[in-house]
Amino acid sequence: MSWMTGWIHFLDLTMHLILVHLFTSWLDSHPQFVSNPLYIGGDSYSGLTLPVVVQEIANGKEAGHEPIVNLKGYLLGNPGTDYKIDTNAVVPYLHGMGIISDELYESSKKNCDNDYYSNVGHSLCSKDLEKINELLSEIDEAAILEPKCPFAAPRPMEVGDHRRALEVNSSRFILPQPQPTFGCREYSYLLCYYYANNDSVRKALHIRKARTFYLY
Ligand SMILES: *[C@@H]1O[C@H](CO)[C@@H](O)[C@H](O)[C@H]1NC(C)=O
Ligand SMILES: *[C@@H]1O[C@H](CO)[C@@H](O)[C@H](O)[C@H]1NC(C)=O
After folding, report:
1. Cα dist from 193 to 162, 201, 202, whole Å
2. Per residue in 65-111, pLDDT tens?
3. Which among 171, 167, 172 has a CA at the least distance from the CA of 154?
4. Which spans of this chain does the record mark as coiled coil (predicted)?
5. Which residue of 164, 166, 167, 169 sits with most ligand 1 atoms within 8 Å of its CB, as the best mutation to test the pocket?
6. 3-class secondary-structure state, position 39
7. What share of the chain is helix, strand, coil (3-state, %, to 5)?
8. Is the pTM of this model over 0.85?
9. C-alpha of residue 63 to centroid of ligand 1, in Å
10. What is the pLDDT of residues 141-180, one digit of tens each?
11. For the chain, where are the alpha helices, taking DSSP H only?
């Protein structure tokens, strides 16, 4: 683990505590919701953070900390779970979906010794991964049956160290990159961008201008 990854994990850990604190503070000021059945949901990167938040809330409940919430469960969609497991799942999946050939799959399996996470530095392995990434770049990674559209969310595309705050000139900002067109899944991100940045919307929602530190 690099120091950077370690730092990000440290930030995540701090985030858990902040989220739990925000949640319980909110319930303190909205006690009418305390007895409601509580399900906590998240997707993508929150697969790494949410279980810890839920565990923290469950522990608090067991220890009898107020407010006693009616925690029923949690759900994760398309979650990140573990860098190594997630990374190693990509190549077999691409092969299973017919995106890479049997030959390339067998070759990469052999050259990377079935571990695409730890062996990327080996030259034969990285050569195969380069070919795989080239093929991967032709499809929409999030929805492989949909057309490949420009990515329009001002956030990173992948789980990993490529945090927005760490990229001097992220290629993944919404503007002035090519924009997704109507019919692309990403089109709704574009609409959200205009909606959320519109001054009258901000005024109506009482959003205050502030300097923001982006975690990801
Ligand atoms: C960042 O991107 C802008 C617009 O494409 C470009 O003009 C600028 O030189 C880039 N800056 C760096 C540090 O790459
Ligand atoms: C913001 O929204 C209002 C109300 O829909 C609209 O009239 C205005 O043109 C929008 N502003 C910008 C800059 O798009």
Report:
1. 21, 11, 12
2. 888 999 999 999 988 888 889 889 999 999 999 999 999 999 999 99
3. 172
4. none
5. 169
6. strand
7. 50, 10, 45
8. no
9. 52
10. 878 888 888 766 554 444 344 444 444 444 444 455 677 8
11. 3-29, 46-62, 83-96, 102-111, 123-136, 187-197, 199-204
CA of 71 relative to ligand 1 center, distance in Å: 47
Q: How many residues are there in the chain? A: 216
Handedness of CA 150, 168, 156, 115 (dihedral sign): positive
Q: Is the pLDDT of residue 123 over 60?
A: yes
Ligand nearest to the CA of 170: 1
The alpha carbon of 183 and the centre of ligand 2 are apart by a number of angstroms equal to: 23
- Does residue 205 have its Cβ closer than 6 Å to ligand 1? no
Q: How confident is the model at residue 181 (pLDDT cuts 50, 70, 90)?
A: confident
Say if strands 37-43 and 70-77 run parallel, antiparallel, or are unpaired: parallel
Rounded to 10 degrees, the C-alpha dihedral 20/21/24/29 comes to -150
Does an H or E element contain 77, and which? strand 70-77
Percent of the chain past pLDDT 70, that is, above it, reads 79
For ligand 1, atom 12, name the residue with the nearest CA.
169
